[in-house]
Amino acid sequence: MNVLELSEQEIIRRNSLNELRAMGINPYPAAEYVTNAFSTDIKAEFKDDEAEPRKVSVAGRMMSRRVMGKASFIELQDSKGRIQVYITRDDICPDENKDLYNVAFKRLLDLGDFIGIEGFVFRTQMGEISIHAQKLTVLAKSLRPLPIVKYKDGVAYDKFEDPELRYRQRYVDLIVNDGVKDIFLQRATVIRTIRRVLDEAGYTEVETPTLQNIAGGASAKPFITHFNALDTDMYLRIATELYLKRLIVGGFEGVYEIGKNFRNEGMDRNHNPEFTCMELYVQYKDYNWMMAFTEKLLETVCIAVNGKPEREIDGNIISFKAPYRRLPILEAIKEKTGYDLTGMDEAQIREVCQKLNMEIDDTMGKGKLIDEIFGEFCEGTFIQPTFITDYPVEMSPLTKMHRSKPGLTERFELMVNGKELANAYSELNDPIDQEERFKEQMRLADKGDDEAMIIDQDFLRALQYGMPPTSGIGIGIDRLVMLMTGKTFIQEVLFFPQMRPEKVVPKDKTEKFTALGIPEEWVPLIQKAGYNLVSDMKEVNPQKLQMDICGVNKKYKLGLANPSVDEIAAWISKIM
């Protein structure tokens, strides 16, 4: 790496790296380092009256250091927490050579470095459970300084809290910010609990294609890629539904998949274009059964994560204890807007939208218009878990017609804290009806609806072999984790959320500088001084430019012969 691309701290750390090697200390050893304890367990299991001090071998990052001559204290951070370590020169350097302590530990090791400690557990005079080191091993040298968060009286200082940096450099966020790792451990508990409940119910976890010929199973914009071997365009899946239902046709009692879906849509606090979803399909069930099953599932998940069926979110105590309210969507719209859409056609609903001062366009069919009304006036008002049921057929191309309410379907969406969490149906298993629904979707696509479904002929063929009565549900895992951890931004529960590309400072090519008579070896120094474009030098005083670039030469000890003010003036004079 070009030395000019490094900060002063990075240069110092690389020099320390070389000095460690010169001392015969490998800063990146290959051998296994055997540990037998974690920081949290050491503290929890400590007993003051033990006859013999407990011997431990631990490893982790050095997060703080207080050197007091021949003795020092450090704070070691392992995968579970932090513990204080007491280090003395003579304990880790029992022979005459004291360089491991005097040189390596005190001068060449830095905060963020990984070390191994062998020693015994004791309680200090201040009452803190600590490790008395008897052996120190260097395990990995950190070449970049950490943004160390300092705590005093329970208050954090020098926080690493810029969301842009935290999400882009999640590895740093996990190291320095307390509680971040806990969110993802809770996320793992959510997924593990869902999997346990479904497995215990006798359902089979399966995997279906991520690359698909047709983006089906939902109304959404897909990501498109090209399959070179087949010379055909493919889609990243927007849902797993149609493949899972093929497996129900094939004879499985119940199948589920927890995996990634991709929708080429916007990013905000509730949406990420790559998201995790759980879809479940069970034969011989309907949406009423699925509502009861979902209530019990979410109650179980909340207890597993929080120890109780309630969670505080945005200042609201939300109870996941079954049962949940059930409310038909048209009744919800009537309740929130005063308009009863029952029996209205598309033109009449457009008039309602105009009266509600909504922004709509000609591409929206009846189903999309109802969805827009619900989204704007209703969705955000349902804080406690609420099943919104009985959607119009135009909104539900994969759902069975309602058994007793003409024009409606047996579908529900679960709303929690003002957002959709789950979507479920009594699945449509009439292949003739399904084909007509697909054709209606194609008519919407012809009108310009770029989220309308495409006809999946193979799925229709599968239905023609017969699919038993089936209920299915999709639950957004990311949103569920947000609810279970009390987070209001989806980026907080994703290890690596989608981000805009990092901004790159524009720089002129070396040739543009050398055309002015500037020696090639001076171009990096000029750009390091902040003159990335030739035009940046046009109005600069030659003396200032000389001071700037010669300062870089001196700071980085490059040993180049400094140009004169007259030479620099000649460079500047040639800039057009």
TrEMBL record:
GO terms for biological process: lysyl-tRNA aminoacylation. Keywords: Aminoacyl-tRNA synthetase, ATP-binding, Cytoplasm, Ligase, Magnesium, Metal-binding, Nucleotide-binding, Protein biosynthesis. Pfam families: tRNA-synt_2 (PF00152), tRNA_anti-codon (PF01336). Its EC number is 6.1.1.6. Residues 184-501 form the Aminoacyl-transfer RNA synthetases class-II family profile domain. Binds 3 Mg(2+) ions per subunit. Mg(2+) 1 binds at residues 413, 420. SUPFAM superfamilies: Class II aaRS and biotin synthetases, Nucleic acid-binding proteins. Its cofactor is Mg(2+). It catalyses: tRNA(Lys) + L-lysine + ATP = L-lysyl-tRNA(Lys) + AMP + diphosphate. Mg(2+) 2 binds at residue 420. It is an enzyme of class 6 (ligase). GO terms for cellular component: cytosol. It is found in: Cytoplasm. Belongs to the class-II aminoacyl-tRNA synthetase family. This is Lysine--tRNA ligase. It comes from Phocaeicola salanitronis (strain DSM 18170 / JCM 13657 / CCUG 60908 / BL78) (Bacteroides salanitronis). The gene is lysS.
